[in-house]
Amino acid sequence: MKSFFKNVLANIVAFAILSVVFFFFFVVVVFFSAMSGEKSVVVKKNSVLTINLKTDIIDSPTEEQASIFNVNEKNKSILLYDVLEAIKNAKTDDNIKGISIETDHLNAGITQLDDIRAALEDFKKSGKFVYAYGNGVSQSTYYLGSVADQYFLNPSGMIDLKGLATEVTFFKEFADKYGIGIEVIRHGKFKSAVEPFLRNDISDENREQLSALLNDIWKNTSDKIAASRKIDAGQFKTVVDSLYGMIPEQSLKYKLVDKLVQKSEYDDFIKSKIGASKEDKLNKVSITNYINSIEKDNSGDGVAVLYASGSINNGDKYGDIYSEKYVKYIQDLKNDDKVKAVVFRINSPGGSANASDEILYELQQLKKVKPLVVSFGDYAASGGYYIAMSADKIYSEPNTLTGSIGVFGVMPYFKEIANKNGVRSDIVATNANSAYYSSLNGLTPYGVAQVTRSVEGTYKRFVHFVTQNRKQTFEQIDNVGGGRVWSGARAKQIGLVDDLGTLNDAVKFAAQKAKLKSYSVTSYPKKKTAFEQIFDDMNEDDISARLIKNKIGKANYEILEQITNEKLRSEVKMEMPYQIKIN
After folding, report:
1. Is residue 208 assigned to a domain?
2. Is the dihedral of CA 139, 145, 149, 152 positive or negative?
3. Which of the 8 DSSP states describes residue 274?
4. Angle between helix 80-91 and helix 110-124 axes, rounded to 10 deg
5. Catalytic residue among 91, 97, 128, 191
6. Per residue in 467-491, pLDDT tens?
7. pLDDT classification of 29: cutoffs 50, 70, 90
8. Which of 123-137, 157-171, 180-194, 216-230 has the lowest mean pLDDT?
9. Is-catalytic flag, 191?
C-alpha cells in the first residue's frame, strides 16, 4: 500500500512539474512572438511600397485577439486607419517612389476597399506610380488593383470578375420535417433575419431590398472599375456577363489588364521606372512594415476613435461589442480631459436590443460633454444603426449597409420531435405564466401576446430615437424602416445619415467641431497583448467556444449560438440578417 501511494504521489509531482514547465515555455513563446512584431523598420532610398497583404484588414483592434489558438499564425491583422495613414505618408515620403499592389486575395470589407482605393487615387496626385500584378485575382482585389496606372497579369492567370449575387438558405421545411418548432415575432415586413424559419422561398419584400442593395453596391463598384480602366459602361457589362476575366487573353483584349507577364518581368519593369538596373535588388517595403516605420505622436490633446465592430451583446467580454465593456470605454473617454472629441466607428449588423440601449445612453451622456461624430464601416444596421443615434453628425460610406430599423424575437422549441421520440414533459409552476416559454413546448398564447408587445415597444423606442436624431416624424422613419436595409448612398438621400465620407472625414470634422488646429488621433479600445489573452483563454467555456469557432467558422458559430445559447434565444433582437462581400 505504501508503494502505491508513493507511485501516485510521484505521478502527481511529475504532472505538476510538467505543467509548470509547459506553461513557462508557452509564456516565453508568446512573449517572443509578441516582441518579434515590434522591430523598427528603416525605409531605404528608392523604395517601393508593396501592398502584398497576407493579412486581414480590420476596422477595430478587438477583431484581432492574441490567443493561444492563433499565436503561431504568420498572418497578422492591420487597422484600416493605419493603412490609410501609411499611404498618405508615402505620398510625401522621398524614399518611396511608388506603390506596387501584389496580391490575389484580400480579406477586407467593401467600404474598407473603397477607402484604400480612394487613398491610392489621392497618392497618384503626387506623380508617383501605382502598378498592380496578379495571378488568380479575386473580384475584391481586382476592384482595388484597377485603380493602378497599369495592371499586369500572369500569362496563365485569371480575374474572377462576375458581379454580385446572394443566396438565401431556408430551413422551414427542414424544421417541419424533423419536428422543430420556431416561434417568430417581428416588426417590419423587410425584417428578413427570420424569414428562413418562416418560408421555403424568398419573399417579394426581401427580393426587392436585396436587389436594390446589390445593384446599388455593384453600380458604385463597377463604375469605378470601368472609369479607371477606361472601358465603356456597356462593354464592361458584357465583359462581366461573359466572364472574360477568366481567360488571360480575353482580359488583355477587353482592357481588364495592360500586359501578360511573369512576376520577374514585372519586377524588372518597376526597376526601369525607378532607374535601377535589372541586376539591382528591388527595394520593397511591405505596408505592414511601413506602418511600423512611421512615428506616431499621441501626446497632447486629441481625437479618440472608439471602434465598435461585430455583433452587439450583453456582458463584459473583449471582442465584438459587449455592453459592459463599452459603457466603461465611453465613460473613460467622457472623463478624459485630453480627449477633446470622439469619433465612434461602427461596423456592426446589430444584436441585443437591451445592450444597444445601454450603449446609446452612455453615448448620449458623452455628447453632453464633448463632440461625438459617428463613422459607418461595412455595416450600421439594426442595433448598429441604433447606437449611432446620439451623434452630432453621421458619416456613411456609399456602400455601407445601413438602417434595418426593425426588431424581432426567435424562440425555437422541440415539442414534435420530442413527442415522436417518446419525450414529454409536465410543468409545475408558482404563477400563471411562470412557464410562458419552454424549449419543449414553446410559447403559451399569453406569452406570444406579451413578447409581441415587447417587440412592438422596442420598435417604437427605436424609431423615437431615430426621429430625434434625424429630425423626422415617426411616420417618415417608419416608412423607410420596417427592417429594410439601405446602401449608404440611398441612406443619405432619405436622410438616415448626414453625409457620405470616410473615417478620416469624420476625424477631421470632430477636430474642427472641437476647435483643434493640431491634434493626435488615438484608437480605443486598446488591443490585448498575447500575454493578457492567455489567462482569458484558460476559461473552459471560452476554450470550447474558440475550438468550435475555429472549426466551423465565425458565421456558422453565431448561428449555432442563436439556437443553443438560452440567453440569446430569449432576447429581443435588433439585427441584420446577412452580410455582403465582394469575393
Report:
1. no
2. negative
3. T
4. 10
5. 191
6. 999 999 999 998 888 778 899 999 9
7. very low
8. 180-194
9. yes
Q: Which of 263, 293, 323 is the last residue in one of the domains?
A: 293
Give the ranges where 433-502 is alpha helix by DSSP (H).
445-470, 474-480, 488-493
Residue with cell 493579412: 55
Judge residue 384's burial from the number of C-beta atoms within 10 Å of its C-beta, 0-12 exposed, 13-18 middle, 19 or more buried: buried
C-alpha cell at 316: 463584459
**403 and 510 in one domain?**
yes
Highest mean pLDDT among 41-50, 175-184, 402-411: 41-50
**Residue 447 maps to a domain:** no
Based on the fold, state whether residues 72 and 137 are members of the same structural domain. Answer: yes
Q: Domain for residue 458, yes or no?
A: no
Going by C-alpha positions, the residue among 115, 162, 156 that lies closest to residue 134 is 156
pLDDT at 5 over 80: no
Amino acid at the residue 447? G
CB 411 within 8 A of CB 183: yes
Cα-based distances in Å from 354 to 313, 359, 367, 463, 491: 8, 9, 20, 15, 25
DSSP notation for 220-265: HHHHHHHHHHT--HHHHHHHHHTTGGGSHHHHHHTTS-SEE--HHH
Q: 570: domain CATH number?
A: 3.90.226.10
Pair 66, 34: CB distance under 8 Å = yes
Which of 146, 311, 375, 382 is labelled catalytic?
382
Domain check: are 125 and 149 in the same one? yes
Residue 523 annotated as catalytic: no
Q: Judging by beta carbons within 10 Å of its beta carbon (0-12, 13-18, 19+), is residue 4 exposed, middle or buried?
A: exposed
The answer to whether 483 and 188 are in contact (CB under 8 A) is: yes
Nearest residue to 214 (alpha-carbon basis) of 538, 493, 490, 403? 490
Query: Which residues span the domain enclosing 28?
Result: 1-36
Q: How large is the average pLDDT for residues 28-37?
A: 46
561 HSE (CA, 13 A, CB side): 19
Count the domains in the chain: 3
What does each C-alpha distance from 273 to 93, 114, 133, 139 come to in angstroms?
Answer: 17, 27, 15, 28
353 in the same domain as 282: no
The predicted pLDDT at position 309 comes to: 93
Let me know whether 28 and 70 are in one domain.
no
For residues 330 and 272, membership in a common domain is answered with no
Q: Tell me 473's DSSP state.
A: -
- Picking from 42, 224, 62, the residue whose alpha carbon sits closest to that of residue 145 is 224
Mean pLDDT rounded to a whole number for the chain: 83
Omega of the bond leading into 349 within 30 degrees of 0 (cis): no
Whether 524 maps to a domain, the answer reads yes
> For residue 6, what is the enclosing H or E element?
helix 2-36
* pLDDT of res. 265: 97
Residue with cell 484600416: 80
Whole-structure pTM value: 0.80
3-state secondary structure 68-124: CCCCCCCCCEEEHHHHHHHHHHHHCCCCEEEEEEECCCCECCHHHHHHHHHHHHHHH
Smallest Cα–Cα separation from 135: which of 47, 224, 266?
266
- Could you read off the pLDDT of 374-414 as tens digits, one per residue? 999 999 999 999 999 999 999 999 999 999 888 877 777 78
